[in-house]
Amino acid sequence: MGAGAIGCYYGGMLARAGREVTLIGRPQHVEAIRRAGLRLETKAFDERVRLQASTEPQAARGADLVLFSVKSQDTETAGKVLSPHLAREAAIVTMQNGVDNPERLAAVLGRDVIPGVVYVAVEMAGPGHVRHHGRSELAIGQAPASEAIAAAFREAGVPIEISDNVAGGLWAKLIVNCAYNALSAITQLPYGRLVAGAGIPAVMRDIVEECLAVARAAGVRVEGDMHKATERIAQTMPGQYSSTAQDLARGKQTEIDYLNGVVVRKGEALGVSTPVNRVLLALVKLLEAKSR
Amino acid sequence: MGAGAIGCYYGGMLARAGREVTLIGRPQHVEAIRRAGLRLETKAFDERVRLQASTEPQAARGADLVLFSVKSQDTETAGKVLSPHLAREAAIVTMQNGVDNPERLAAVLGRDVIPGVVYVAVEMAGPGHVRHHGRSELAIGQAPASEAIAAAFREAGVPIEISDNVAGGLWAKLIVNCAYNALSAITQLPYGRLVAGAGIPAVMRDIVEECLAVARAAGVRVEGDMHKATERIAQTMPGQYSSTAQDLARGKQTEIDYLNGVVVRKGEALGVSTPVNRVLLALVKLLEAKSR
Predict the structure, then answer these.
(1) Per-residue model confidence as pLDDT tens digits over B19-72
(2) Which of B288, B255, B274, B286 shows the shortest CA–CA distance to A200?
């Protein structure tokens, strides 16, 4: 459900390994996939994978496993249209960025959801064409269905771990995004030039500290040194503009409400002050309103 | 010294009242003033005022009173070239925005400086042409020369107060500027649209609180309710873009180092944390570097 780059990649890998997969997505991709299969381009192979595709949520009917990979801002809408078609025994795994999708989807569906965290670099290179740049590991939460799900992914060549701390993994990704996305969006600068700016490393440390304080207050254990992890991103991707920067430049709605926005909202709810995340959120919202 | 809008306005008012005045400024204004006098345009009158004008600091030779009104970033440079021409008994009054000009100028000159704070809306409307939009009050610090200076301004129709808290007045102006200038510059939005942004009023309260904490630590007493004073600005000037926004749009160097920058530096020196001012400073610096 939500056949963007992540959905197409993992769905394609499962289908390639012989699983029966249906991608539910936008017409342009669905039409191309029906016509010529899903083009799955990786550094190791470039194949056309045959699988089902549909624009309609009822295509999820009868599924044993639903991989939920819509954008964070679409979680409620997509959950609602999906809900009536879910079999009672279906397992649902979120494969999204943002820390609160599992709880938001569970609330909409009125049932348990298995949280997932995705470590993969993929993009849609064209209609029905997913391009893989690197990594592919998954971690999913502990649930009765988790072992069977993990077995299916392992058979398909996807490394997967069953974790008691998926929330920590989702927060670690969120924190790095909070440190880069808004700053890159506001300045329209790539990560390398960003961190070379006077005062920016100190600002990034402030952002990370605020996020960690909110995570702690929320009872989430974030593992590893998040300051070092954050610094590494600019070193490994100096030319990268954040997705938020790209959305803003194209006049599209950004995911900022599920990045710095979620830190601010959870901070408010938990009594943790997040002034730096708050000013970044407010600035991106203003620029978004101005550009749309 | 520094015949921009403020220097031309107060110099012009003194000359109009019969005082002998020399404006030291840029060639375009000096040439126009030598040719046709200073055009002093207010809501009450529009006159050509005859006075001396020069591009050279030695024109300050023999002055009893030097009004120092260069931009904050030029204080040291202008002070150094002025210094050899100052009579021993000359009084020097800073008429600048920014809180640390009096101490910076005193350090360069190696002598006492009378701090001043200026409440006036003026602009240079063209070469040698200053336009007055409203107010004109001055406050200057207590010093042996202060009564004579005050008398000269009062004769010229300029309300002036001798104050034991000029620093408080300078900080009050700084705080309002810290709340608006960077936000308007980063978003290129006028004050009315700025404060209508989600989260912006809370961000402005954060900025004001940080500034007040630094002022307190610096031993400065800021009078009045700065939150209310800040809110009023957007109500009275909804269409206004900050000078920092205008500088940035024109690819000019901004005064941000003497606005949020001074709060950050003084905060660091005094052990007061200023994370919101710091992120705004860093963002404006990045945008400035990008636009120049």
Answers:
(1) 999 999 999 999 999 999 999 999 999 999 999 999 999 999 999 999 999 999
(2) B286
For residue A213, the one-letter residue type is A
DSSP class of A127: T
Give the residue carrying structure tokens 């809180």: B99
Closest CA to B105 of B91, B119, B124: B91
Q: Give this prediction's pTM.
A: 0.89
CA distance A86 to A83: 6
Give how far A199 is from chain B: nearest CA, Å: 5
Given a cut of 90, is residue B262 above it in pLDDT?
A: yes
Q: How far is A111 from chain B (nearest CA, A)?
A: 33
Mutation test of the interface with chain A: which of B279, B284, B291, B292, choosing the one with the most A Cβ atoms within 10 A? B279
Structure tokens at B109: 């000159």
Residues A199-228: pLDDT tens digits? 999 999 999 999 999 999 999 999 999 999
Question: Considering only residues 187 to 246 of chain B, which have any Cβ-Cβ distance to chain A shorter than 8 Å?
Answer: 187-189, 193-194, 197-200, 202-203, 206
- Other Cβ atoms less than 10 A from the Cβ of A106: the count is 17
3-class DSSP string for chain B: CCCCHHHHHHHHHHHHCCCCCEEECCHHHHHHHHHHCEEEECCCCEEEECCEEECCHHHHCCCCEEEECCCHHHHHHHHHHHHHHCCCCCEEEECCCCCCHHHHHHHHHCCCCEEEEECCEEEEEECCEEEEEECCCEEEECCCCHHHHHHHHHHCCCCEEEECCHHHHHHHHHHHHHHHHHHHHHHCCCHHHHHCCCCHHHHHHHHHHHHHHHHHHCCCCCCCCHHHHHHHHHHHCCCCCCHHHHHHHCCCCCCHHHCHHHHHHHHHHHCCCCHHHHHHHHHHHHHHHHHC
Q: Using the predicted structure, report yes or no on whether residue B130 has a pLDDT greater than 90.
A: yes
Give the mean pLDDT of B240-267.
94
| Unique residue bearing structure tokens 């995911």 | A255
Measured distance CA(B158)–CA(B135) in Å, rounded: 9
